[in-house]
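Support request from a user on the community tier.

User writes: "When I paste my structure tokens into the form, the page sometimes reloads and wipes my input. The last time it worked, I copied everything first. Here is what I submitted, just in case something in the input itself triggers the reload:"
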């Protein structure tokens, strides 16, 4: 289930993963580094991340993805479908996304994932007794979602048991479904009629959905023949629900730029970077945001997570929306209504797609610990114990 907005390692440290350690625990090395201090030993000096450079001039997420297997990971990963479905389920669970979870729980069972492992992910139980590859995937997903970082020990262990290209594939898949989860949550996509929700949530989703689409967006039927719900094909999502239906309400980034301008798009990018504590994404995008006319005072509100007093209506609506979406995984009825009034349905769908894609990039950058250039000053303060 990919969205419309388009948008991953060679470890030198041989540290051992403690799969029973709590999510959010960080190595003494990482804690001592601060925001962008001494570079740890598993960072390649040329790529400035955990992977060696493959092509000169290509940096960041694009350079990371060059290390992937080249397979269609969603359907034909060398790891096997049961492990890629596990990566998707872990992502859905850590983002409290019931629709994404429920569809993929059915598919995971169908392709042979042990129901006992599914229940460990569902209830966030310790990984004692979980097979090595499954445990590595779950721990990677838990850390990336919970701390926006991946410890050297978790990274080293995952690469050892999965292999470099498979690990890149797994993280790329997690990043894709992180973006999908954001879009589904923003528009409160609930189960299709007659489907049971199997994910325990820490909140009660708002009851502001349409009866037919089961989301905040009215039903738009596809002009194509309705897809069948097939566990082994791309038509798993029932017609009129899910990320493809959400995308029908948008018009793309060119439309968003024409309607709202690059300044608002720059704000959306910075919000996603801030809420994922993504130093790299923030620092490379802040200068562009200033160039596009985003006021330093607004940038500082986002940078330091300050109250929205005095912020203009449009900017305040977008900042509040992003904060709830990424921190709480639940956008309140009032926040959604305000954003809908300010942006309109089409532009809101498109600006959410932009923030969602930025969240996907943040996952890739965090997993492989992408660092700034040696002479580049970090512009984002440390937060939530992450780099």
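"...and here is what came back when it finally went through:"
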């Amino acid at each position: 289930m990919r969205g419309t907005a388009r948008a991953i390692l060679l470890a030198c440290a041989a540290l051992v993963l403690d799969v029973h350690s709590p999510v959010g625990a960080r190595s003494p090395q990482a804690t001592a580094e601060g925001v962008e201090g001494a570079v740890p030993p598993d960072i390649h000096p040329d790529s400035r991340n955990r992977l060696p450079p493959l092509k000169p001039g290509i940096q960041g997420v694009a350079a990371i993805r060059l290390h992937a297997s080249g397979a269609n990971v969603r359907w034909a990963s060398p790891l096997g479908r049961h492990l890629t479905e596990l990566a998707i389920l872990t992502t859905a669970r850590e983002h409290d996304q019931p629709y994404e979870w429920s569809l993929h729980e059915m598919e995971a069972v169908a392709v042979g994932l042990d129901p006992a492992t599914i229940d460990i992910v569902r209830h966030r139980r310790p990984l004692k007794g979980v097979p090595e590859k499954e445990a590595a995937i779950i721990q990677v997903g838990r850390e990336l979602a919970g701390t926006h970082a991946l410890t050297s020990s978790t990274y080293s262990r995952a690469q050892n048991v999965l292999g470099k290209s498979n690990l890149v594939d797994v993280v790329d898949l997690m990043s894709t479904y992180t973006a999908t989860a954001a879009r589904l949550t923003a528009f409160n996509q609930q189960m299709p009629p007659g489907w049971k929700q199997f994910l325990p949530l820490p909140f009660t989703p708002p009851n502001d959905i349409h009866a037919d689409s089961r989301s905040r967006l009215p039903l738009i039927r596809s002009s194509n023949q309705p897809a069948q719900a097939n566990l082994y094909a791309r038509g798993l999502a029932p017609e009129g629900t899910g990320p493809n239906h959400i995308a029908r309400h948008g018009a793309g980034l060119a439309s968003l730029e024409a309607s709202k301008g690059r300044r608002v798009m720059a704000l959306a990018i910075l919000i996603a970077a801030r809420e994922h504590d993504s130093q790299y994404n923030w620092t490379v995008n802040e200068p562009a945001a200033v160039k596009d006319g985003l006021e330093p005072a607004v940038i500082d509100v986002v940078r330091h997570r300050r109250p929205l007093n005095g912020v203009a209506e449009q900017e305040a609506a977008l900042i509040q929306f992003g904060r709830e979406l990424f921190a709480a995984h639940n956008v309140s009825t009032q926040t959604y209504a305000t954003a809908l009034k300010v942006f309109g349905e089409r532009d809101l769908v498109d600006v959410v797609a932009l923030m969602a894609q930025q969240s996907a990039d943040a996952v890739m950058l965090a997993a492989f610990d992408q660092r700034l250039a040696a002479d580049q000053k970090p512009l984002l303060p440390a937060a939530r114990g992450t780099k």
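Agent notes: The reload is a front-end session timeout and is unrelated to the input. The first helix runs from residue 28 to 33. The chain has 15 helices and no strands. Escalated to web team.
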